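WP5 quarterly update. Target: Oxalate decarboxylase OxdC. Source organism: Hypsizygus marmoreus. Length: 470 aa.
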Amino acid sequence: MISFASCVCALLFARLALSAPAPAASSSAPTVSTVSSVIAPISPTAESSVAASSASNKPRPTSTATATEPTATVPFIDLDPNEPLWNEDTPGIHQPIHGSLGAKLLGPTNNAIVKQNPDLLAPPTTDHGSVPNAKWPFSLSHNRLQTGGWAREENIAVMPVAQAMASVNMRLEAGAVRELHWHKTAEWAYVLKGSTQVTAVDADGRNFVSTVGPGDLWYFPPGIPHSLQATNDDPDGSEFVLVFDSGSFSEDSTFLLTDWLDHVPAEVLAKNFQVNISAFAHIPAEELYIFPAALPEPDSAAPKSPQGTVPDPFSFSMSKVKPTQLTGGTVKVVDSTTFKISKTIAAAEVTVEPGAIRELHWHPTQDEWSFFIEGEGRMTIFASQSNARTFNYQAGDIGYVPATMGHYLENTGNTTLRFLEIFKSEKFQDISLAQWLALTPPKLVKEHLGFSDDVIARLSKTKLTVVGPK
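Structure tokens (predicted):
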């Protein structure tokens, strides 16, 4: 009697013979087997299934195992252009349509905002998922108007993503004073136009007076009392941007000299200063904040402190720093290695020429607060897990990128793009995507991205920072 096991073996050999490839047409050509060289033992479950299949006489499909390229497991990216669909000069009412996606607006629209933000209404197809809003125009901030100037702020109340830093844009007419005050946070400043005389005294009684011009900086550590006064170097006075190292900072919570003395009993003031109480008859009953005054005296006329002057100046001439020339623009970096007192704020001033980009990069530990001084730009933020969103920026706008999120900045206009990158850190740091790939074993990069040897050879082992048009 023929055993059951013999029947199973015979059936298996027959099936293998039937599924074997046909001989090659030429005897000189080698044959390649599509059957795996390793065959696993047949389990009892497999034996019963084979027997059941034989009993029912139903053919089963033949499976083959082939070696695949690493990238063959997923589709390749789409190389179709994803440029902005319009700009501020493009006429007409713009629509939320990108290729075959979207549909025309039926309701009302604010076309002035739409013109400035094409990538919000009709985003590139590379955008996906959710990324917090990373744009705030100072033009949308409430402005506090005073005799002699104004101030408007940005903080987490209007830009919730900006957790690490807040900012104030301030204007002083010639002679006008931002009154003596101090903050819980550090204050960093960049002068946009005109000159501002700053004064300060540290905890050891050492004083400081300096006039800070366009493109220059000042920095006051937390709790250091100071004042700001516009000179007449520019007949219009001065304008500057202040950055504070807390996203919840509010200019309205500043400690002001007049506000404090208004809330101290007059007899206490007399005891403290050892003068007659009548000396305080003209203290303002409300805070001055910003007020007109006579032009400041020269820096050299500052009082001489017996304790001396501060060892590390509170101002820095960034305008005199020679920029690093790059293929697509320039960069100047100022942090505590050069501006020693600036322990919590590091900065870069970047220019990007038309068609160039601030290269793909990220900052390993600190958020980036950006301020756009001139030109037009476009940035896509990659927030991991397929989340990406693109924003458009104009002069006067604020941008924000949380730490570790990949991004770039592309000049989408016809003039130079100039902006500040600010970090709550004592040192500027970034990681270049191109440099990372260039310094990674080439075989590994090829297996990830399918690059050719020519592309691998073109990867820069030094940071490009700003890359010129191809």
